[in-house]
């Protein structure tokens, strides 16, 4: 009776890379919060900033990527969170990178004075934070990149021209059908001005592995300790 050949399934390099990236992101833990830029600690490790409109799903995206339910808090009243929150990343208690959760912008119920103050804080942060290694802008693809999003992209343009990577993450992609997703992706790529664009759904896990790999690659690119990322 002939023997049936046995086959060993080879590991998909992409699966391995995403598993490593997601495992690394799962080490995220609260580091500090600051109401003003001068209250932020001066850090030497790469820092990736998350920005977006108040209803763009920023907290949900951070929690999904780090596989933690309550790392980033979404205010019950959009636009009321007015602090920069830093989360440390790294195994065995070491910090090899930091995620920065910036206040959401664009919510109409916030007093105009607060809007202007926080817009200025964000501008100053994005222009002057020395260890800023990348920016992730979250956007609801049903509404597209709006005027305030375009203003933010314009703010970081000088740093982008100097090599700062940025990613437009189209959240809530599950709200669109396949053709609508393709259209939203195409339009966002035209508006992003050279940045990367990805579809993302916390509910369907769409784009989670890809976004995790993008974040990990940016830290490696910025010189994050390779042994901590391994």
UniProtKB/TrEMBL annotation:
Domain EngB-type G: 44-221
Similarity field: Belongs to the TRAFAC class TrmE-Era-EngA-EngB-Septin-like GTPase superfamily. EngB GTPase family.
InterPro entries from the UniProt entry: G_ENGB_dom, GTP-bd, GTP-bd_ribosome_bio_YsxC, P-loop_NTPase
Keywords: Cell cycle, Cell division, GTP-binding, Magnesium, Metal-binding, Nucleotide-binding, Septation
GO biological process: division septum assembly
Transferase is among the record's keywords: no
Domain of life assignment: Bacteria
Gene Ontology CC annotation, any one: cytosol
Cofactor(s) listed: Mg(2+)
Species this chain originates from: Ottowia cancrivicina
A Gene Ontology molecular function term of the record: metal ion binding
Protein name in UniProt: Probable GTP-binding protein EngB
Role of this protein: Necessary for normal cell division and for the maintenance of normal septation.
KW Cell cycle (keyword) present: yes
